[in-house]
Amino acid sequence: MVSKKRLDFGFNGYQAPVIPKAPRSIRRRGPRKKLVEDNKFCAFELLAAVAGKLLEETESSASSNIAEGKFPVGICTDEREKMQLIDDKALKSESFDHGSCAESAFIPEVSAQEHNLLSNFKGLRQDENDCVAEHTSVHESYDLQENIDCDIKLGICEDKNSDGCKLGGSVSVGDSYDRKLESGSENEKNQIGYISMANVSTVKDPIGECVNTNVLINSESSVQLPVYRDSVHGALLQKHWNNVKLGIRDDDENSFGRKKTSAKIRPFRPQPRMGHRRIRKTMASKYWKAGPRLKDCELYNTSEGMNTFYRYRKSFYARERCQRAHLKKRKLSKHRYDHEHSNNSISNLPEKGMRGDKSSSAVILHRASRAPAAGKGHQKVKDPHVKFSIKSFKVPELYIEVPETATVGSLKRTVMEAVTAILGSGIRVGVVFQGKKVRDDHRTLQQAGISQSSNVDNLGFTLEPSFTHISPSATPKKLPVLLPCDEDQPLPRSPTTPMIDSGISNASVEPPIVTNLDNVNNNELISPSKTTDDAIMDGAGPDSKALVPVPPMDAEALAVVQANPKPKRTEISQRRTRRPFSVAEVEALVEAVEKLGTGRWRDVKMLAFENADHRTYVDLKDKWKTLVHTASISPQQRRGEPVPHELLDRVLSAHSYWSQHQSKQHGKHHNPVVVEPLKIEETTLAEGA
DNA sequence: TTTAGGG
DNA sequence: CCCTAAA
Question: What is the pLDDT of residues A145-163, one digit of tens each?
Fold first, then answer.
């Protein structure tokens, strides 16, 4: 009683950091894997985008080559390969889902769409078809890329023959039909382009349907919820955020009194396949080993940084569960999840700066300075350049709701989550010129009337969330071979997995990444440049490599790359976040054990940790185990938060005492509960080792 | 579900 | 902390 009270008090003050304590039962469920995969998918996009951008910069000079259709096939093929990876994943996850979730509804639909799409492109070469089709499946990346690229490209390519801007070195729909164009008429080209786009949107639909009710969807024309969004969007958004709120509430340790209810929620997910266990274990171990090295990380445990992340993630879980439960809109969840991850990953990219801006800091783009590339800068040199100085981005309005009793900290986190959610879900940049949104990405700045002379103040950029990521499922065909089972293949990828899973890498932007990389490499894992995923990183075809040296970024990007695509079957199974026992907890534990003895952890838990949902009786048992050990070693060998001698002494005493006075059921005498509790005073610290 | 232990 | 065999 006493102990409990005391403990409670302590805990309240402690305000346990919010870390998802995802119950194993939930965590363990397989589906997560899928999410991760998608996550990878997303990461691809992002990476591709970033890489593309880089390429572009480097490539601006070489862009002419691209324009000339220099590596059509190359690109296509390359891209196809990449896509296949994605597709593969997609397939896997799809089928996976099929298994247990009755949400496969879209699949057929999507397939159909796909067919249409393909049929529309009959005229094109097969490989082109593939390209296009695949692109479709990942159209989001285009969007993303476009947003990033157009900015620059438009200016650069302005005077190019093709009215469409080449999108960096990365493959894109544009490439597909642009090439076509080259051998066809302008008209034809446009048509193709049109078709392409149409299909893209068509394909999107399925998902849209799925997601719509929940989240704000971007249907190309309706997306901008930012400042310019309409009420409808607002509603959607709001809804979305409500979810967020729910998630938070649902998870989080702040709600100690909550009991395990939330933890009981069972996601509708397929059971993990055999073999995961093993894998997971392995990964866990590795991760664990890496753990100590993540000192910096540890700090986050109690700091906002880490917590935010976890919390964020958790909220996603929650939302996900919620959505699934109520809407079974798996797609959405998945995407969200992906986004979340990709977001985290991407945050490690050099582009960080840009991302940061989203949160409304100031950014400055000097297109002019980057446009002209060394050497063959032909006509570009003459192009007037427009300089943009983006002081800040307009951030989409966020609807946040928290109880009055929420702490400021939690409010911050909530906001953070909201922001992160948007960022993570894929941000799109919107251009608003003279109060109007400029949608046509293919228009040149000139055409849009944006010039240095024009009042720059009339130009604005907005950040638009795009929850539209198309589901990989949209692309059927492709390597259907390695279906689901593939997930059980631990082999090469496992090593990286832990990192990803650990969430640590994602959690904190800096140290972890580096660490991860090291670890990964040490694990002889990937040599960055070899990763299949790297291919994607390389962006467009073969040349890209040559074009893009990018040293620092590589490292970072790499980290990301590995973190995502690699572990196809990554199981999100996260190891519970480490939560060192505080002295107060130790004290409570000691007191409880003194009273109840060892072997009755369940009771100990109920007595002293009733409200600490994150402490299971197993945890307590383990802790006691370590405490006993700690107490028996020299203080110099101890690590972590030092436990007062007094407590350690009591630990030894209690341990010793209960060793003799079996407290266990079958124990000799008395009824368990009545066994006289250890009297600290009487049993001296005699036997201390 | 709990215990008890090994990893 | 995780994982499990047993109970």
Answer: 333 332 222 222 223 333 3
